[in-house]
Write a structure and sequence with these properties.
This protein is of the alpha/beta class. The chain has a domain of 211 residues: 3-Layer(aba) Sandwich (Rossmann fold), CATH 3.40.50. The protein is 37% helix and 22% strand. It contains 12 helices and 12 strands. A 6-stranded mixed beta sheet has the order 8-9-10-5-11-12, with helices on both faces. A 4-stranded antiparallel beta sheet has the order 4-3-6-7, with helices on one face. It has a two-stranded antiparallel sheet with strand order 1-2. β1 and β2 form a beta hairpin. α2 crosses α9 and α7 packs across α8. The longest helix has 19 residues. The chain is globular.
Length: 307
């Protein structure tokens, strides 16, 4: 195996090879994860069998370059309402760049982005948030000196309607509005089971809980589409199980469409409805988890041509 192939194999976390040399896609099933949830019920146990709706996001021939470096080349795929859509690929494949294109951080040089039937041209992230797109980040982006409650409140920023003066005086309609927003934040805190740390400064929390707080901030915006950039990176097995439960619950109970980047292939294959695979900025696979994991191009990209 070449050095590049060996590095690529190391980048694929969670994949082991069976006795036949083929990848073994291990991991707890979505049904098993749901069954362990405190919200266990018959429907939750079938969360992995969701029915996707119509296409709400259509990415057509997206190409993105930084100078002479091509981050994305002629990539097309769509996202259907209510589904969990995974984007996978080795390190440097262009996954985070694709999320940044979706929520307006990057503007591709070529291609079309159609969201809910309308073409988007050079949309700002703030406008994307107002249209119902929220996200978490690969590297935690929280205010470390602020409490959990205050961090989650920042997710309500686009929902405030009172002016600067009214909020400074905290009087009348502004006070009532903040009360309503805090009530919504408390619902998110209860949903993610972080009541005990609501007044704790985020900087004092362990990594896994900080990831959960970042998810809470995104949910506070009440998004119709949630972009998750490696939400389980650096977590232990128990923390991953918790995060899987919450992702499934968000999708099942709220009907939120989820676009997910994740390196743990056991998790991806268990909870995703469809998977798109990137390698060196190009699409090499797209389909259901069963179709993708049997794709020879995908196997070659991650385990090397010798396998």
């Amino acid at each position: 195996m070449s050095g590049d192939a060996r590095m690529t194999q190391m980048a694929w976390q969670g994949v082991a090879r069976g006795g036949d040399g083929q990848p073994a896609w291990s991991g707890a099933s979505a049904a098993a994860i749901a069954a362990e949830s405190p919200r266990e019920d018959a429907q939750a146990a079938q969360a992995h069998a969701r029915q996707a709706g119509d296409v709400i996001l259509d990415l057509q021939n997206i190409s993105l370059s930084f100078g002479g470096v091509k981050a994305l080349t002629d990539i097309s795929f769509d996202v259907r309402e209510h589904e969990i859509r995974a984007i996978i690929g080795p390190n440097g494949a262009g996954k985070s760049s694709m999320l940044n294109v979706i929520n307006g951080v990057y503007h591709p040089q070529q291609g079309r982005i159609v969201f809910r039937g309308e073409e988007r041209r050079k949309m700002h992230p703030t406008e994307a948030a107002r249209q119902g797109i929220a996200r978490t980040f690969q590297n935690i982006a929280l205010f470390k000196g602020m409490t959990v409650l205050d961090n989650i409140m920042t997710g309500r920023n686009t929902k405030f309607r009172s002016g600067l003066l009214a909020n400074a005086l905290w009087w009348g309609p502004a006070r009532n509005e903040e009360t309503r927003h805090r009530r919504k934040v408390e619902e998110v805190i209860d949903f993610l089971e972080i009541q005990a740390i609501r007044k704790t400064p985020v900087g004092r929390l362990p990594y896994g809980l900080q990831k959960r707080v970042e998810l809470a901030r995104a949910l506070a915006a009440e998004p119709s589409m949630l972009l998750l950039d490696e939400p389980m990176a650096g977590m232990n097995v128990e923390e991953k199980q918790d995060m899987c439960r919450f992702i499934l619950d968000v999708n099942h109970q709220f009907g939120t469409t989820i676009v997910l980047i994740e390196h743990d292939m056991g998790v991806v294959m268990d909870i995703s409805d469809r998977v798109v695979v990137l390698d060196y900025g190009k699409k090499i696979g797209d389909g259901t988890p069963d179709v993708v994991k049997a794709n020879p191009d995908v196997i070659r990209a991650y385990l090397g041509a010798g396998h």
